[in-house]
Write a structure and sequence with these properties.
Elements lengths: L14 H20 L5 E2 L5 E2 L10 H5 L2 E2 L19 E2 L7 E8 L6 E9 L10 E15 L2 E10 L7 H6 L15
Parallel strand pairs: 3-8
Antiparallel strand pairs: 1-2, 4-5, 5-6, 6-7, 7-8
């Protein structure tokens, strides 16, 4: 009998199948519970064990690196998070990266696409333009005993920039754990 077959007259699984599924769900949670993850929230807001541990309830999520640490400098935002969608170094708009879509998070470097404000050479910040950008988090290490990317750089391919040229220019050259200027 297929576990997915619905009871024909009630539109639901027979009770013995529901009981077997509940037993399988409980067994599936044992590794997550042993790893220190207790439960997930159901759609109705009640806390219930999950038959399929979510990313946040697995030991991998516990060890997933963050982008530096929160508050590495005054006014920063988005740092200290796993795969942040928006970061700000707390300065002018050219220090904000948003709509970030990360790829390869957890690898030695994580690349992403985003939007940021480009300041043309010789122009004031007030004339900066929103453009598509690339972003890379790298130098995967530890920050306060937890895995973290300690560097991040973004650049504008439409302006001929590359990861290498952005690094050479010293763009955002800070240790995202200590806040130390490394330019």
């Amino acid at each position: 009998m297929s576990l997915n077959r619905l009871h024909p007259s009630k539109g639901q699984r027979p009770s013995h199948v529901r009981h077997m599924l509940a037993a399988f769900a409980a067994l599936a949670c044992v590794p997550a519970l042993m790893a220190g993850c207790a439960s997930g929230a159901s759609a109705d807001g009640n806390s219930t064990p999950s038959a399929t541990p979510s990313a946040s309830s697995t030991s991998d999520a516990v060890s997933a690196p963050t982008l530096g640490r929160a508050g590495w400098a005054t006014g920063t935002k988005g740092f200290g998070s796993v795969e942040p969608k928006r970061i700000s170094n707390g300065g002018d708009p050219t220090g904000i990266v948003f709509d970030i879509a990360w790829k390869s998070w957890g690898k030695p470097h994580a690349d992403g696409t985003a939007h940021a404000y480009y300041e043309a050479p010789g122009k004031p910040v007030s004339q900066s333009k929103k453009l598509p950008a690339r972003i890379r988090a790298f130098k995967l290490d530890e920050c306060n005993g937890k895995p973290a990317y300690r560097r991040v750089v973004w650049w504008f391919p439409s302006k001929g920039q590359t990861f290498q040229s952005a690094r050479a220019a010293g763009v955002e050259a800070y240790d995202l754990c200590t806040g130390k200027d490394i330019s």
